[in-house]
TrEMBL record:
InterPro entries: EgtD, EgtD_Methyltrsf_superfamily, MeTrfase_dom, MeTrfase_EgtD-like, SAM-dependent_MTases_sf. One of its GO terms (biological process) is methylation. The keyword Transferase applies. Residues 30-345 form the Histidine-specific methyltransferase SAM-dependent domain. Coiled coil: none annotated. It comes from Rhodospirillum centenum (strain ATCC 51521 / SW). Signal peptide: none annotated. This is Histidine-specific methyltransferase SAM-dependent domain-containing protein. GO terms for molecular function: methyltransferase activity. It holds the Pfam family Methyltransf_33. Keywords: Methyltransferase, Transferase. The lineage of its organism: Bacteria, Pseudomonadati, Pseudomonadota, Alphaproteobacteria, Rhodospirillales.
Length: 347
């Protein structure tokens, strides 16, 4: 797969654009996942497939809802402690952002880092990714910016992680930035494997230069808290999270010839204290038969499709998980209310 290098033209030669590398899963992956998930009991759909263009747009709206504290709290931590983080990460870093979305939070790091060597945004939503990375390249014209379209949680990607170094120079350190508590979408066994694989990749990928420091992960984690606050965050009054959840059915209709009536399903999100996670479901409002990808599926009233888990952690729990993955917790930052945390984990 080639890297489409459309980087840093000189003055008068058009806009600065990010390079692009496409490692997205093959197209039939969505069809296979839908057929497998809708045939299962209980029924499930992978949360990865929320993020088509419309899903990405809706998620950006979710982050602006008053009930949804994670984004503004994490941004607050980055704004408050970004300079300290930058000092700890050191000069010449290549920042690799997983699930980069609109690439907003990373700017709070880039603005404080000393002479960053490069940025790689990794996201599954191709158009959203390219637009965000092009904006970043235009705003940071001296930075080597690469948009890498991939599912950063997909086993195939994790089994053969391939993130190139900056084209212009070797980095002083490679930093994996994983904000937004997306790690909470993985169950504990998957989270352990995820951290272990990235830790091994960071150790293999560097240091390559004499002055390069060991790589690490800067990971955002949503902490356990009052269940009422969690419930409100996933059931906003404006109904944006509900629309985001239901868009998964609309995507099946658009891309797989589905016959889902979104009005025949309801959004449900709740906190399970025993598992320490928020679950999102789509609930059939009535008995019905729907078609998707050439198959028919019968739903009973009240039957659900489980679309997402979001695990919540404690500070000691994350440190223990990181240690089991072979990573050392060097620094932790939290907000005054203890809602959210960022961990610097060294490989």
């Amino acid at each position: 797969m080639s890297r489409d290098a459309t980087t840093a033209p000189g003055p008068g030669h058009g806009p600065v654009r990010a390079s692009f590398l496409d490692l997205a899963p093959r197209e039939e992956g969505f069809r296979e996942a839908v057929l497998r998930g809708l045939s299962a009991k209980p029924r499930t759909l992978p949360a990865t497939f929320f993020y088509d263009a419309e899903g990405s747009r809706l998620f950006d709206l979710i982050t602006a809802q008053p009930e949804y504290y994670p984004t503004r709290t994490e941004i607050g931590i980055l704004a408050e402690s970004g300079a300290e983080m930058a000092d700890l990460l050191g000069p010449g870093c290549q920042v690799i952002e997983l699930g980069s979305g609109s690439s907003v939070k990373v700017r709070l790091l880039l603005d404080r880092l000393e002479d960053p060597a490069g940025y790689v945004g990794i996201d599954i939503s191709r158009a959203h990714l390219r637009a965000a990375c092009d904006r970043l390249a235009a705003d940071y014209p001296e930075l080597d910016v690469l948009a890498l379209c991939a599912d950063c949680l997909h086993p195939e990607f994790l089994a053969g992680i391939a993130v190139p170094p900056p084209a212009s120079r070797l980095p002083g350190r490679r930093v994996v930035f994983f904000p937004g508590s997306t790690i909470g979408n993985l169950d504990p066994v998957e989270a352990l494997a995820f951290l272990s694989l990235w830790g091994r990749w960071l150790r293999r990928a560097g240091p390559r230069a004499a002055d390069e420091r060991p790589g690490g992960l800067l990971v955002g984690v949503d902490l356990r808290k009052d269940p009422a606050r969690l419930h409100a965050a996933y059931n906003d009054a404006a109904g944006v999270t509900a629309a985001f959840n239901l868009n998964l059915l609309a995507r099946i209709n658009r891309e797989l010839g589905g016959s889902f009536d979104p009005d025949a399903f309801a959004h449900r999100a709740f906190y399970d204290p025993e598992r320490g996670r928020v679950e999102m479901h789509l609930v059939s409002r009535r008995d019905q038969i729907v078609r998707a990808a050439g198959r028919s599926f019968a739903f009973q009233a009240g039957e659900t499709i489980h679309t997402e888990n979001s695990y919540k952690y404690t500070l000691p729990g994350v440190a223990a998980l990181a240690a089991r993955a072979g990573l050392r917790t060097e620094r932790t930052w939290t907000d005054p209310d203890g809602l959210f945390a960022l961990f610097w984990l060294v490989a």
